[in-house]
Structure formats: C-alpha cells, structure tokens
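Narrative summary of target 7.
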Amino acid sequence: MTEVWLASNRRVLVTAMLPVGLLGGLSLAVLARDAPTVIRVLATGLLIVSLALLIGLWQQWLRPRIAYRDGEVLFYLRARSPIAVPVAVVEAFFLGLGPAYLPGAPSKTETVNLVARLSQHASQWAHQDVKPALGHWRDGYVTIRGAWCEPLTGEVIRRLNRRLREVSQRESPLDHSEARQ
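Modeled conformation, tokenized:
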C-alpha cells in the first residue's frame, strides 16, 4: 500500500476546479433549457471539456508529490509513473529556496522548496528528467517546488525525516544498530 508523505497543493487545485465546475454547471443549465441547436452543441462541447478537465484535476488531487511503498520513496515529478528510489538512497529532507516557475509570474519569483538529498554512492540516482514546473533533479539533489505541494513548514520537514528514519531502520535494522555501537 502506498503511504503519502507529501501531498500536492490542493489549494491551487481547488482554485482551478471552481471555474471549471462553474463552466460545466452553466453548460448543464443551457442544456436544460430550450435553446437553438447551435447553442446546445456548444454547451455539450463545453460540458465535455469541463468534465475532462475536472477529471484531470481530480487525478492531480489524488497524486502526491512524495510517497512510500515497498522499500521505495516515490517522487511524482513527471507526467508518467513516479520515480521510485530505494529508501536507503534517500538521506534527508530539508527546505530550500528557488524559482517558483508559476505561469504568469515574473521569472525572478521565488518559493520555498523541499530538497531531498540522495546518497553520493548511488550515482545512478544523481540525475533524472522531471517536469521543470514541478521540480529539479541534479547532482543527487531532488528539488520539489513549493508552489506545487502542500505548504512546507519546519514540522513537515521533521515529519518527513522522522518517517524516512523509521522506514530506513525497518528496511535495514542491522546497519542502524551497528552504527549506534
């Protein structure tokens, strides 16, 4: 079972769903009235588009930014399947600052980001192609843009690191008990 560690930015998704839902509702209202055929065809087209958009936004609502499953940390930073990294490769999470990549915002707009540091010994995970609007993955650092995830606070970072430590110890209890001695 997949455990969500960091959710998407649901405030942005609700903001996007409202006008799309309103457009769908208006289309239904037009279809419920006795309107000319051309208007009914346009309303049907708008209803189909708004339903498709709502489905896509709902899928983004359900899609986390970071999750955990079966010994792997899942980074959802591209359109297709997540990038699954063995939990032993992920060393820590911390806050950073970087470009927001928000549509319509000035290019110098910055946001608080989440950064995951990966082990330098796992060079196969040093670089991955991700959607630039969602994040950046270079030199063993995974940056998740704060504009596209739940609000980032010190408590969120502590929760992520605590959960990472718990699953890491569960995955390799001998390594951690030897390190304590």
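The radius of gyration is 21 Å.
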